[in-house]
Amino acid sequence: MDTTTESGTRAEPVRLDPFGRDQHGENARLREAGPAVLVELPGGVVVWAVTHHDTLQSLLSDPRVGKDARLWTTFREGRLPEGWPLLNFIVVPGMVTADGEDHRRLRGLVSQAFTPRRIADLAPAVEARTVALLDGVAKLEGEFDLRRHFAYPLPMQVIGELLGLGLAEQDELHELSDTMVSSSATPAAALAAQRGLNALLASVVAAKRAEPGDDLTTDLIAVHEEGDRLSEAELVGTLLLMLVAGHETTLNLITNAVRALLAHPDQLRLVLDGEQPWSAVVEETLRYDSPVGQFPLRYASEDITVGDVVIRRGEALLASYAAAGRDSGHHPDADRFDLTRQPAKHLSLGHGPHFCLGSGLARMEAETALRHLFTRFPGLALAEGRTDEPIASFVSNSVRTLWVTV
């Protein structure tokens, strides 16, 4: 790989911590090094991390940057190590790995499930699920893990109902998807998760073919079988994308928002007193502590100059959402959690043709969850003496547990 700058100086890649133990500290060092920095991923794979807000926003909508892994020289030449933990992100057939007409076709099929009207119709069910989960939380004594008992089941139940998944399937799929988004998974674990997800979702498809339901999986099967616009691999890949994106990111968003509010009681008071809306909490959390740290991957279809470096044709890029969110060049006083920030623009839900299709649903779920949680438990506090460890990944940005007391 050619890793020279325009001036001819060879850049030494920075090795990303696959366990994500200090993402914000690592991101600060990357931003200091420049808007695009060579980094080393697990397996010795070298790509560019794009860490500055303006640069990332530009590249996310740049027609010279694609999502088809066949653009990536390392992948095309078969140089990825076996069981590479991030492989699922780049090879699963679906709109997240497609460009051009394929992407528009796949996105158009799924977008029908996420229209503003469909999301508004879901709001009462989300409210009811939130209240029911908090009724369960109220019965817990002493300290409890808010992530496990509230932040996880809410988005998982919502996306599970949309896809027509049973509760047992939801829990199994969550465990497998946790491994999928982990940059620290062993090759054996990564391969097992990939096979397990594909097998389980294929069985869901088979069950829905035998007994169709009022759900998105049944609708996508009908599109596949009647219009031949969705291949079998794309069908399973689309379900996988919706499952992971539909609960993992919202789970992290709710968790990170609660952590931020409890660590900043002055900001919590602003929403409890009605001076700021709950939507401001969601948007500022997305900027301040993005649910996604480094998202793999995009690829340069031709040479692209960024600052004083050149991203060569066939090289890969990470979208460094968490880093861009704290870019002081775009966000004044970027390390401060501030609900009065205007405007609280961020890139954490993407930008350009691959902007998050479920962003409206994620925002609605998070606002509903936070409003009900803090209205029901205004005295909620972080549990003393507990250390909430980061998720062992630089893709996900959150903590494995969030111990609180009421």
Key phrases:
globular, Cyt_P450_sf, Cytochrome p450, heme, disordered N terminus, Cytochrome P450, alpha+beta, 50% helix, 16 helices, 406 residues, 3-stranded antiparallel beta sheet
How does this model look, in words?
- Keywords: Heme, Iron, Metal-binding, Monooxygenase, Oxidoreductase.
- The chain has one domain: Cytochrome P450 (Cytochrome p450, Orthogonal Bundle), CATH 1.10.630.10.
- A six-stranded mixed β-sheet has the order 1-2-3-9-6-4. The chain has a three-stranded antiparallel β-sheet with strand order 5-11-10. The chain has a two-stranded antiparallel ribbon with strand order 7-8.
- The chain is globular.
- The chain contains 16 helices and eleven strands.
- The protein is α+β, with helices and mostly antiparallel strands.
- It starts with 13 loop residues before the first strand and ends with a strand.
- Helix 14 packs across helix 16.
- The N terminus is likely disordered.
- The longest helix has 32 residues.
- A hairpin with a 2-residue loop joins strand 7 and strand 8.
The helix content is 40-55%
Outline the biggest β-sheet. 6 strands, mixed
Tell me what portion of residues adopts beta-strand conformation.
5-15%
Level-1 CATH class name: Mainly Alpha
Q: Which SSEs are present, and which pair or pack?
A:
Layout: E1 14-15, H1 23-33, E2 36-41, E3 45-50, H2 53-60, E4 65-66, H3 73-76, H4 87-91, H5 100-111, H6 116-138, E5 144-145, H7 146-151, H8 153-163, H9 167-180, H10 187-210, H11 216-227, H12 232-263, H13 265-272, H14 278-288, E6 294-300, E7 304-306, E8 309-311, E9 316-320, H15 321-325, H16 359-376, E10 381-382, E11 403-405
Parallel strand pairs: 1-2, 3-9
Antiparallel strand pairs: 2-3, 4-6, 5-11, 6-9, 7-8, 10-11
